[in-house]
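Hi all, a correction to my earlier message: I attached the wrong file for Molybdate ABC transporter substrate-binding protein. Here's the right sequence:
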Amino acid sequence: MGHRSGHGAGRPSRLACVFAAALALVLVASGCGGKEKQTLTVFAAASLSGPFTSLGHAFEASHPGESVRFGFGDSQALAQRIAQGTTVDVFAASGEPAMRRSGAPTSRVFARDGSGDYLIGAAPETAHLVLAREFIDLVLSDEGRRALTAAGLTPV
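and the right structure:
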């Protein structure tokens, strides 16, 4: 009397199967996503647009799924935007005054031309410090030096 036999006995209910399948799908989807894709934002002097655009393509090719977004313009104007809170990850300026104005904690000279030095550094509030450093390393690499030279700059 207390024992059921017949149709469905000993088998999981349809609802339990649906729940198990949904749970498996969620677990697989969360494991496949990996890390969230990131966009690296680079502000740079307008005179760097050629070599930096080329280096941006190289960076994206070596970092599948990551992207680089550039803002090119007058170094002082870009520095002012950074100082006013515009979020960027890397700043490459023409001249020390613009770099100081941006608030970048550290920077280094990476190229020169007839009008002066170009400096590069991670922005003070970057959320993508690892990617910022990797982009800076690319600019300082042999590939970066070739791109700068092709643009008429003297790598340092």
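Sorry for the mix-up. The radius of gyration is 26 Å.
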